Amino acid sequence: MNKESKIPAPSIERLAYYSRPLEALLDSETPVISSEKLARLCGVNPAQVRKDLAYFGEFGVRGVGYDVRDLLVEIKKILATDRDWTLCIVGMGNLGSAIAENENFKKRGYKFVAAFDSDPTKIGRTLPCGLIIEPTSRIRESVRDLKIEIGVITTRPHEAQRFADLLMDSGVKAILNFAPVQIRTLECCKIENVDFAVKLEHLAYHIAKIL
Amino acid sequence: MNKESKIPAPSIERLAYYSRPLEALLDSETPVISSEKLARLCGVNPAQVRKDLAYFGEFGVRGVGYDVRDLLVEIKKILATDRDWTLCIVGMGNLGSAIAENENFKKRGYKFVAAFDSDPTKIGRTLPCGLIIEPTSRIRESVRDLKIEIGVITTRPHEAQRFADLLMDSGVKAILNFAPVQIRTLECCKIENVDFAVKLEHLAYHIAKIL
DNA sequence: GCGATATTGTGAAATATTGCACATAGTTGA
DNA sequence: TCAACTATGTGCAATATTTCACAATATCGC
Question: B59: which of A194, B68, B80, B127 is 20 to 30 A away, CA to CA?
């Protein structure tokens, strides 16, 4: 267990959140920002910003703040988003298509190089981004040949684990799962589950309390 | 500060996660489940399951476990998903459309009753689910007339705060934001931000470390 | 060069969350 | 009825995360 593995997961997620306003600040040519202002933009405590950054180095200047451009470069270096990543997506329903086309992903260097579906009527269809939907039987081959590093799952829940296993076994190093099931992975494959109905349920809980 | 406000936010989110396998167990006619099995299905600690549930009551039977059907009913009651919710969506790009059509949402009683976009070329278009895209100038009126309780934002980031303010001011009680900016709200309006590029960045961080 | 001011980096305190371990209570079979 | 077994509910300890508070260090104006 090395030093880096002790960095709290919330800190790592916040780094990504910090980068959003930094990009906007860079566009608006603001050269420097304080932890206090960045914190306000992200809705967190200023000490938190400083501590999160301090896990990785000393990026600020005392009495001045952080150079916007430098800080953004450093954060991207930390999160390994200073390079492109090769992804594929399994499950080309509405959500899958939307994600494959998503500007936000493209802008950050996440390149979808293959799209799969098990529905024969969808096979061969060309997406606006140029990808052609392939049968899921081609997953193993494509992951190997195109050196796909991350798999995204947007299938129905009952198929999700099966495709996760297949992706893992084919060699992807990480999986982003949008199906509303908890996917289990081996040690060698990192998983993140995203279930946005959970967020709605959290909201419902809170507003029902007030009513 | 009442008793309920001391319940940890992670516990509330986990309740939603617990409900996923419970639904499947109900379909497969498994009558009873132990905290240990449910925990394994959700990738958490059994004591955590028991403690989360204990915040809201005693739902289990010692020596036996939890009745699947009853527990699901209780969780739905707690999360206020035992009723329908009325939502609208602002920003009818790929992601907005996918969310409006999403089966997972529909199944859980989240009803989209209005869809808005500021792009004139999209206005009047009918979605597969039957909704007609309206101009954003109609947001205030629709929220009031249709008693919309939750607003979903899937616009570009630079417009997101403006529409959030408008939704809030029109009377929605909660906002689910998919734009990659941190939306600020008043006390009266609960917000959840979902930025899935953040999840990818988290994955990238971890797999880059191994390489 | 120096005092006034600003803002970082960080140890230590405060708070929040998780997990252990066991008393408690229900079930089953003889 | 009772012993053996099972699995919950929960006080408390362990761990994780956040926030405070301040020393350290940079800039600016004179």
Answer: A194
The number of domains in chain A is 2
Residues 170-189 of B with CB under 8 A from A: 173-176, 178, 180-182, 184
Query: Is there a single domain that holds both residue B64 and residue B167?
Result: no
CATH number at residue B117: 3.40.50.720
Q: Please give the residue range of the domain that contains residue B70.
A: 4-78
Q: Do B15 and A85 touch (CB under 8 A)?
A: no
Query: According to the model, what pLDDT value does residue A186 have?
Result: 86
Q: Are residues A55 and A122 in the same domain?
A: no
Model pLDDT for residues A29-40, shown as the tens digit of each residue? 999 999 999 999
Residue-level pLDDT at B211 = 72
DSSP string, B23-81: HHHHHTT--EE-HHHHHHHHTS-HHHHHHHHHTT---EETTTEEEHHHHHHHHHHHTT-
